[in-house]
Task: structure prediction
Amino acid sequence: MRAHRALAIVAMLLLASPASARAQQADERYLTWSKKQSEQVGRTWRREGQVGNRLRFRGLQTNRSVNFKVRATWLNAETIRASARIEQLRSRLSAQRTQDLVAEAMAVEGAVFLIELDPREGSGVIPRDWQALLQAAGGGPDGAVECVDTPALRDVRALSGTFERDYSYTSFWVVCPLTVDGGAPVFGQAPEAELIVRVLNQEEVLSWPVPTASLDLVPR
Result:
């Protein structure tokens, strides 16, 4: 009994330590961000590109688009907090409810990306077999993992991103494993990550710095 009581006291002291208090304060700083600051966080983790050659001639094939504008936002812990803060400001949420939104989004296992595609010309239809793959920058095909389209994440409020919906784009939420076959980390020691978006055998590669574990920016 005394041993259990001693362990409980030690745990309480650790939780009350200055380091723990500073960590908690740092984790809650997003609750003071302005809308502009939150949007800037989202902009930091957003990339834009083009799948396919913009000058490619469509010819008589009007049944499909020849290229696609693409935007992708890495919904890591930083953008999740920014998104939750914007939702807090918009819906007048309490701090606790906002933290609950963050916890809900962070519970998703893997790296989450919001991918937006806008077909140019042609039918305007996005082929169902489009793909998103994640890998370390400069990695070979054996190091890439395929991301899974997960429509249910559309309803997770802190995964909505930090910008108003642009209806000229179709939005997809994808989840990418963080380990390759065999359990090795996708990024290893690489400082950058690449997201490959492939549509109709054409690709665009978007890159980000790998979030550091010490900042806990990648959802678990």
Notes: The mean pLDDT is 83. Residues 24 and 46 are 27 Å apart (CA to CA). Helices lie at 2-15, 18-27, 35-44, 77-91, 95-106.
